[in-house]
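Input/output pair, single chain:
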Amino acid sequence: MPTAESAATDTGPSPLPSRTPQRTLPLWAALALSVATVGPTLAMAGNGQGLVGTVGKSIPLVFVIGLVGISLVGYSFVRLTRYFSHAGSAYALVGATVGPRAGFFAGFAMLGAYLGFSIATLALTAAFTNSLLAEVQKGSPNPFQLPWLVPVAVAAVFSVMLTGRDARLLAKILLGIEGVGIVAMVVLAAVILGRGGAKPTGVDWSTFSASGVSMSEILGGVVAAFLCWAGFEACASMGEETTDPKRSIPRAITGTLVLTGVLFVVVMFAQTIGFGTDKQGLAAFERSANTLGDLGDTYIGEWFSLLVILTGLVGAFGCHMATAVISGRMVFAFSRDRLGPRLLAHIDPVTNSPRRAIWLVVAVSLAVNALCAATGWPPGTTGNRGIDGYFVFAVAGSVCLMTCYLFVEIAAIWFAGAPRFLPVHGGTSRLSGLVLPGAGAVVIVVVLWFSVKDSTGWVAAPILGLYWCAIGLMVALAAAPIAKRVGAALSAELNLPLR
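Output:
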């Protein structure tokens, strides 16, 4: 592998300062972006049902284990972002430590993940729009529904209008969107706990035990819980725009994990006891289309159920915008390093954002959804075209993201152990820097295995994610000029210690 010195000589000058955004974003803006990307309202309204058949009433235990696992991954991001800040996120974190080929592959996998999430949440926005219309017309045998592509197109137009704006304004919008959802979930959980849960099971603390459930079933359930936190590290892509990024970004990542970790465990516990932990209650939990909405109707009233469904709709759109913003910044980072069109390596002087790259992601998300509508793919399994599209692209993106996370864990181990980085981190906490990312890597391998092992067919959602990663791996291995270019660019942008 070429050295940073030779790469710089071979590939020309470093990126132009005009293609570097200004550092104007405060800590809260970075935190808002990560929280919006995780999408707490979506995670809590639609991810518990699939676990009932696997782990029964032990869903809160599964989320506790998932929180431990994702925290191991978070440790690696925190450790690395204390020293490296870059719009490419994992692209730079892995490239700066392990090497340019690995960095390109990790960045390509992360781009696939967030592009998949952007497509998926745009489809989900359309599905939730019709769900809200149906709820408003509750009792009507044939409620009015919009053609699926209409809300997709409208959402895409609003996304273009908002995502290309100043990142601080966008952060306020995203924070407001998720803030309402979080408050609603906290209120609902408090009411359920205050009323003692469902009769006759009440507040059942045995939900935090694995009684009657095998370890294999628990680990299989942890996969779904683990993926609820996907996107917690999104603020790392704002490293070039955040004030004091080597302090703010690690704090934003930590804050996101603490906030969503406590929220997810408490809310999932409240939901489980809210439906009831007996056979009848768990069956109701499993068949619920929107658990928060159903529990809101039961414990508070129909008006609250409508509010929760509305926050789910707005939360889906907010998650789309957040993932489009992250994807756009990764496209910008690639293009700035001449791995994409120079037209996309542009910072808008008014909004201080890579607006062209973000708009490209929104356009691709709209085009893919339109193509799916025209071809009838993916095959319907839920009876809702938007939900079907959401699951396919979200699962494919999750496989890409887990692959990226694995390389970040390797990068953290490399950073702690490689002699050339000792002058950077001074060897502090070297043991934890090796052990914790190593444990995180094991968790990710387990999650990846359980994600793909039961896939059937060549176009199963997890397999689609592997296809994307395979393309990135082939390019990284076969194209030596790309490795030179990445190495030179990252050395210049991050002021890396030369090898």
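Confidence is low (pLDDT under 50) at residues 1-18. The CA atoms of residues 55 and 213 lie 6 Å apart.
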